[in-house]
Amino acid sequence: MVSSKASRFFDRVDQREFAACRAINRSLRFRPIQNYFRGVSRLGDGWLWYALILALPLIDPERGLSTALLMVTTGILCTLAYKGLKRWLVRERPFISFPSINCGTPPLDRYSFPSGHTLHAVCFTAVLAELMPELALMVLPFTLSVAASRVVLGLHYPSDVAAGAVIGAGLALISVALLNPLFITLFAT
Q: Model-level pTM?
């Protein structure tokens, strides 16, 4: 069974990443850090991305609608990918596996691998980097904060975040290459 092989693999990896997770998670003792990363995590639940997607046609009337539709479509693909991987690979979150790691905010789902927040943040930022680079530079600090928040809050291992970033970037590049020409044609002014 794949999940039992994955479980044995993740048990070994978890042990190797535990010290880094615990050290990073200790920053939660500082209230401003805790509040910052909780806020970033909450916005990373989708709220900032939803607002940005809705604003894109207003920000750039020429490219905004096709870019927004591309981000929505790619976001759906990202959700299917990370939910499928989580159900298949079944990696417990750091705060579940290691009681000395504090959970800084309630998780949205049970399993850890890959980080869905990071996957979406990197995906959306990569789409913007390809189509609206000036806007991508503006959201990049938020994207980096989302990725960091996952480990700081005890919700993910660094490898979950790295995998989420790679998958998100890959899906964004594929989507821009394959779907963007179609959306540009559909919404040409």
A: 0.89
